[in-house]
User: Which sequence fits this backbone?
């Protein structure tokens, strides 16, 4: 089910990745990062999907670029980033975008 987010504007961090064959605690760390992000100031939610070949996209939503910057520098998140680069991801990209408009079924018009 799609997230219910506030009316724009807000920010989206789009993380696309291709997993490597290594597991080495990935699922536990992913769950820990989600729980930790949920309590960060400015966090609005996240949506994520991964296919059977290991390609995934996670979009996290934030109320400001300052909140995104703080999350990027969080000590435990820095550890996860390092493990991602060195162990878990064969390839990845990250994009940050400002959401100006949003629409979902049942809303009747653009928000």
Assistant:
């Amino acid at each position: 089910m799609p997230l219910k987010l506030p009316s724009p504007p807000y920010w989206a961090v789009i993380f696309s990745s291709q997993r490597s064959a290594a597991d080495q605690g990935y699922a536990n760390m992913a769950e820990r990062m989600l729980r930790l992000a949920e309590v960060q100031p400015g966090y609005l939610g996240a949506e994520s999907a991964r296919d059977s070949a290991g390609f995934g996209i996670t979009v996290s939503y934030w109320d400001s670029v300052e909140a995104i910057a703080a999350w990027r520098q969080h000590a435990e998140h820095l550890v996860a980033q390092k493990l991602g680069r060195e162990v878990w991801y064969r390839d990845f990209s990250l994009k940050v975008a400002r959401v100006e408009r949003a629409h979902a079924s049942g809303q009747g018009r653009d928000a």
